[in-house]
Amino acid sequence: MTEQIDPEQGTTDPATAPAEPEVARRRLSRHLVDITPLKASPAFARLWIGGAVSGIGAFMTQVAVGLQIHEITGSTFMVGLVGGISLLPMIVAGLWGGMIADVFDRRKVLIASSLVSWASTLALVALAFWDVHLQGGGEHAPVWPFYLVTTVNAVATTVGSAARGSVVGRILPEHLISRATALNGISFGAMVTVGPALAGVLAAGVGLPWTFVVDAVLFSAGFLGIWMLPPLPRLGEKVDAGWHVVKEGLTFLRHAPNIRMSFIVDIIAMTFGRPYVLFPALGATVVGGESLTVGALTAAGAIGTLLTSLFSGRISHVHRHGIAISRAIQVFGAFALMFGVVTLFAVNGDHAAGPGWSGTDLSMLALMALAMAGMGASDEVSAIFRQTMIITAAPDQMRGRLQGVFMVVVTGGPRIGDMYAGILATAVALWFPPLLGGIVIIALIAILTRAQRAWREYDAQSPTP
User: Fold this and answer.
1) pTM of the predicted model, to two decimals?
2) pLDDT value at 8 more than 80
3) Please, what are the domains in the chain?
4) CA distances (Å), origin 453, targets 327, 333, 384, 390, 439
């Protein structure tokens, strides 16, 4: 009898063995992102494609708004106020938006929030054209309407994101959730890399008003994906919207140690491991390149995210999500530590930074970019399992509120991280925040993982909140 062995392990029968290219293709396909969710659910496919296209436009607008406000005021501080002014409204919108998503039909919530976002984008178009008109007389439009409109847009986007995150569990079977969150990493990577680059090209080529117009056009793809969703009413008994529903969600979270832990570890990572606020100073005074350095390091993080999602085919075989998240965040901390060490050597170099790069500058920049890519990749691993845990471990009636809290975490964490890095970089040195932060992340995650038995033993095959 001829012995047969699995093609991936080899075969003793040359006559029946597949060709080597075919074996290699099969092995590679097992590691590539699984697109089964797109095939299994046309609703998810439309939502995913529309979200990716409209998301590129949203990131375009983020960059274009900054350019517009800087053009009007000439102040970097005024540009930074865009995020500061909208922070508190976004936190409130996350909590209340999640509650709304759990009380009303989620499709209707998405439609309403999308219409507000679309209207705010059209308002930016009008404001930008108004500014161009005033420039003909040597004046600029006032800046406060831009703050108002971007805050409205941020609130609507936050409400929509809370509802969108809670929709996935209704339009996909549970065993496909982790694969769907991996696909979301691909769309996010595309948004971060393509959106800002496209904004720069359009702003320089056709002007800021038309850049906002392109966003408004791209937004139609996202709206179409939402409009074609099936009705998604609340499951179970009807409840009236109000603070008591928000409080119920917070009470549930207090008794959901695994989901709560997923938020805590993410806050730790975002607080101590975000070097983005250091990029302008690194480009101006350490490795040179100025804005090119900022763009290269930012893109490196996004590329790490994109590649992780692209090669996420094996994630469905991982069931110990708590351990996986902890290990991924510790790797994230290790790459943050690497970024700090490289920055330390770069700061202590004997070269002078300028508009261009020397050979030493490029070497240091390459190592920093490698660290950023590693941080983006490990953060995406953590994000895939954290989002999967929120969706699968919580009852559907709670998913909107938990997604709302998730939005508060991902909104507030990075801003706290920027403050941490900015304060320590000013008080000590540019290399100090990521170096210290990496050590703190590794240590805190180790302590918390050891202390939380439920987290260590979490099994995606029998998820518990």
Assistant:
1) 0.79
2) no
3) 33-241 (1.20.1250.20), 255-465 (1.20.1250.20)
4) 15, 22, 21, 18, 23
